[in-house]
Automatic annotation (TrEMBL):
Family to which this protein belongs: Belongs to the sulfur carrier protein TusA family.
Pfam (any one): TusA
Cited CDD domains: SirA_YedF_YeeD
Domain of life: Bacteria
PANTHER family in the record: SULFUR CARRIER PROTEIN YEDF-RELATED
Protein name listed in UniProt: UPF0033 domain-containing protein
Start and end residues of each UPF0033 domain: 9-76
Length: 79
C-alpha cells in the first residue's frame, strides 16, 4: 500500500513562536484530513506543537526526534 501524501514543511532554524505561527498559516489552505510533516530545530516545539494541535483540533499523528531537532506529522481537523 503506498504511503499517504503529505506536505513537507521545513521550519528548521526558526525560534518560538514562529514554527507554530507558520504551521498554522500553512494549514489554513489544506483540505480537512490532509497531512503535514514539519521539521523544526526549536527545542520548545516539543511543547508548542502538541499544544497547538490540541487547541486547534488537529491530530498529532507522530512526533519524533531527528538529528538537531524534531519531526511532527499533523492531520488537519476534519470539521
Amino acid at each position: 500500500m503506498p504511503e499517504e501524501a503529505r506536505l513537507r514543511y521545513d521550519l528548521r532554524g526558526l525560534k518560538c513562536p514562529l514554527p507554530v505561527l507558520k504551521t498554522r498559516k500553512r494549514m489554513e489552505n489544506l483540505t480537512p484530513g490532509a497531512l503535514i510533516e514539519i521539521e523544526t530545530t526549536d527545542p520548545l516545539a516539543v511543547i508548542d506543537i502538541p499544544h497547538f494541535c490540541n487547541e486547534d483540533g488537529h491530530r498529532l499523528e507522530q512526533a519524533e526526534p531527528i538529528a538537531g531537532g524534531h519531526r511532527f506529522l499533523i492531520r488537519k481537523r476534519c470539521s
